[in-house]
Amino acid sequence: MTSLLPQGFRDRLPPVADATARLEQAVLGAAFQHGYERADPALAEFEQGLAGRLKSATAQDAVRFVDPVSQRTLAIRPDITAQIGRIAATRMGHHPRPVRLSYAGPVLRLRASQLSPERELLQMGCELIGLDTVAAAAEIVGVAVEALEAAGVRDISIDFTLPDLVGILANGPLPIDPAQIAALSERLDAKDAGGVAEIARAYLPLVEAAGPFEAAHHRLCAFDAGGALTSRLDGLWAIAEGLKGRVGLTLDPTERHGFEYQSWLGFSIFASGVRGEIGRGGTYTIVHEDGAEEAAVGFSLYADAIVAAGLGEIDRRRLFVPLGTDPAVAAAMREAGWVTVAALEAGDTPEAQLCTHLLAEGDARAL
């Protein structure tokens, strides 16, 4: 017997677990006020269904095992977005569009990186099924920002990207060999100017296009002489207009890491004091049972990164209730918003119970 956990797993203890629960409540509460009702998908499902629900997505990060009952391969979800897509396409397929759903729950990844060694994460977010218009994307980005603000997260910034940019250009005004598109995308993502030049020099301006939103947007507009990107650039500008002055905005049009199944829009969410991104979102396509495709847009947040940075936490005010106190008095303090911790024996103390205040003569006195 050992008390050690497998690599990439951890226990969440108080006050971290409490802070995580409060963060979830604040985020989903803000989403609910915008019409996003909660769905709670199963932790595992058949691998085939999980892998094929989102167009261009795979289940390569999923932990698989054989179900002893069905003798079929199951996968523990590495991401909840595909499951929400399945629910919207099947059990809620009759529901008028768009469908607005929120969720929160653990996900498990087969492998992790050195920078992010966690394999078990708490994911929460919202999905709008049935539309990927500018209006739908603007709502999703706005809800993400409002939900984080409701949770106490400040100094938020958003980095936009255009996941299908290279494909649009390669099949239009700047044609290249289809077999080279993946390699070109990787080199643009890595800002490898030499590598890009080896494949297609016409794409070199994209290496320098990233940066503060307005300047990067103007550079892209100048690059898009043929107008192939006009609708996307106009959409990006409209979305950013609703966020200016509220959050920091940047644009990296060729960023591809983590946006493998997104279509015309992708975005990463950052907050001051947090290493790496705290969320990600964008537009994507759901594949129905009959092969029909449906547009969608959504975002996912990762609670552990937010809580680990001390963001989204609420002051831990605990009121020590001495032994023999009238229960009605303690109940009244709870109704007033206090967390009460009752002494259960004569030797109990506020310090032992990690209390910040003491109930004395009906009042809360700071310690």
What does this structure look like?
It is a single chain. With 367 residues, the protein is of the alpha+beta class. Helices cover 30% and strands 25% of the residues. The protein has eleven helices and 16 strands. A nine-stranded mixed sheet has the order 1-5-6-12-11-10-7-9-8. Strand 11 (279-287) and strand 12 form a beta hairpin. Helix 1 (16-32) packs antiparallel against helix 4. The protein is globular.
Brief account:
This protein is of the alpha+beta class.
Please write out the topology.
Elements (H helix, E strand, L loop, with lengths): L15 H17 L4 E2 L5 E3 H6 L10 E4 L6 E4 L4 H9 L9 E10 L11 E10 L4 H17 L5 E6 L3 H6 L10 H9 L3 H7 L11 E2 H11 L6 H12 L6 E4 L10 E10 L7 E9 L5 E10 H6 L9 E4 L5 H9 L3 E4 L14 E4 L2 E4 L1
Parallel strand pairs: 1-5, 7-9, 13-14, 13-15
Antiparallel strand pairs: 2-4, 3-4, 5-6, 6-12, 7-10, 8-9, 10-11, 11-12, 15-16
Helix pairs in contact: 1-4, 4-9, 6-7, 8-9
